[in-house]
Design a protein that fits this description.
This protein is mainly β. Helix content is about 5%, strand content about 45%. It has a six-stranded antiparallel barrel with strand order 1-2-3-6-7-8. The radius of gyration is 14 Å and the shape is globular. The two termini are about 25 Å apart. The relative contact order is 0.31.
Length: about 100
C-alpha cells in the first residue's frame, strides 16, 4: 500500500514503516518522531542487504532489518505532492521497500 493522499498526514505515527523514494531507488525508513501539527517527521533509515535469491538485474530480493544506528533525518509535509519530502525525494508509508535501479 502506497499511502500518499491528503489523509496520510493525519495517519502518520511513530513506528510506521515506509520508504524514501528518490528517482527509481527506494530505501526503507521508519517514522521515529512526529511534530504536534504533523508538518515535520523524523525518519530513520533501516538496513537492507541482498537476499538468497537476489538478482540485481532481475527480481531484487532484500532483507530489511531495523537499524537503531541508522541515519536520522527530517521530512516535511508538502501540500503540492501530499507526501513528506526529504531533499529531492518523497516518503511513503505503509510498508518497507528497498530497490536499487541497475541502470545507474
Amino acid at each position: 500500500m502506497r499511502v500518499n493522499d491528503s489523509d496520510s498526514r493525519q495517519r502518520i505515527s511513530i513506528g510506521d514503516k515506509g520508504y524514501y523514494q528518490i528517482g527509481s531507488d527506494s530505501y526503507p525508513i521508519t517514522c521515529i518522531s512526529v511534530s504536534p501539527k504533523k508538518a515535520k517527521i523524523g525518519i530513520r533509515f533501516e538496513s537492507f542487504s541482498p537476499g538468497d535469491k537476489h538478482d540485481y538485474y532481475g527480481v531484487q530480493q532484500w532483507i530489511i532489518l531495523p537499524n537503531i544506528n541508522g541515519r536520522i533525518d527530517f521530512a516535511y509535509w508538502s501540500t503540492i505532492s501530499n507526501t513528506y519530502r526529504l531533499e529531492s525525494g518523497h516518503c511513503y508509508f505503509g510498508h518497507w521497500r528497498a530497490y536499487k535501479d541497475p541502470s545507474f
